[in-house]
Amino acid sequence: MTEFTSEFRDDLTRLMQWRRDVRRFRTDPVDEALLQACLDTFLLAPSVGLSEPWRVLHVKSPEARAAALKNYQAANAEALAGYSGDRAALYASLKLSGMKESPVQLAIYCDDGTDKGQGLGAQTMPEMRRYSVVGAITQFWLIARTYGLGVGWVSILDPEQLNRDLDAPSDWSLVAYLCVGWPEELSDTPELAKAGWEDRDTSLSIQTR
Fold first, then answer.
1. Structural domains in the chain, sorted by start
2. Cα gap 165→91, rounded to integer Å
C-alpha cells in the first residue's frame, strides 16, 4: 500500500491553490511530448462504469482555430448584451479567452453513444459520463501546472456551431474548449477576483439532512 507523507499532502494542496484559469499566454510552442504526457493523465481518470467517454480534438489548423475564435467572439458579444451599466463595463474589460495567443487548443468531448461500460451507472444518470470527462480534465489541468503550463477553459461558445466547424461526430457532446500554453505570469488568485467581478468563498457551507 502506498503511503503519502504530510509533505506530499501540503504540496498537493499548494498545487490546487496555484491551479488557475489562465487567459494570458506567451506564444512559445509547447513540446508535443510534454503535451502528450499531460494528456496521458486522462488514462488514469475514473469514469462511470469504466466507460472512459472522453474524446480529444487537437485544434491545430488555422481554419479550425479561426472558426473557434469567431464562435467565441460572437458568443461573447451576445453575453455582453445581457449586462448593463457598471457590470457591462466591467465585463467588457475582462479578458475571457486566450484563444489568440495560446499555442495549443483542445476541444474535449464526451462520447454519449459509447458502448464501453455497458451503461453501468449511466442508465439512470447519463450525465455521469460528462462528469467523468470533467474529472479527467481536472487531472490534466493539475499535471499541466506541475510542468509550468497554464490551462484556460473557454465556456463562452456556441457548442453546436463548434461541433459543425470541427466536424465532430453527432453523438459527441462538447464539455470543454481548453487553451494550453505558457502563462505570462503566475498567480494564486483567480483573475476574476483580481478584476473585482466576484469574490471567492473562504469557507464551505455544509448542510445536514
1. 20-188 (3.40.109.10)
2. 27
